[in-house]
Specification:
By secondary structure, the chain is mainly beta. 15% of the residues lie in helices and 43% in strands.
């Protein structure tokens, strides 16, 4: 996915989890990155999804399990400005999906 432009980024808290989402788009594709860091490890994940224009839905293309997430080293007591802890995982997911999508 060459020369993709960032469309949006957001970071929010939900019960016992911190959530990060970013959306990238170019002329060929739309990619959504979703990372969830939960106090329960089995509910934490990172995924890169590709938008299917024909069926109008997102499909997971690559993922990072909890054990490989960089953000897992962060305390569950994150502050509102701690989205920076999700950047390494976002970069990894974007790199992995670029190998598939091109």
């Amino acid at each position: 996915m060459s020369s993709a432009a960032i469309v949006s980024k957001r970071f929010w808290f939900e019960h016992q989890s911190a959530n990060y989402e970013s959306l990238f788009r170019n002329s060929e594709a739309a990619i959504r990155i979703r990372i969830k860091y939960d106090s329960c490890p089995t509910q934490s994940y990172g995924v890169a999804e590709l938008f299917d224009r024909i069926h109008n839905e997102w499909h997971v293309v690559v993922s990072i399990p909890y054990s490989k997430l960089e953000c897992r080293a962060v305390s569950s007591y994150l502050k509102a400005n701690d989205a920076k802890y999700f950047v390494a995982d976002e970069k990894r997911l974007l790199g992995d999906i670029a190998l598939i999508v091109g």
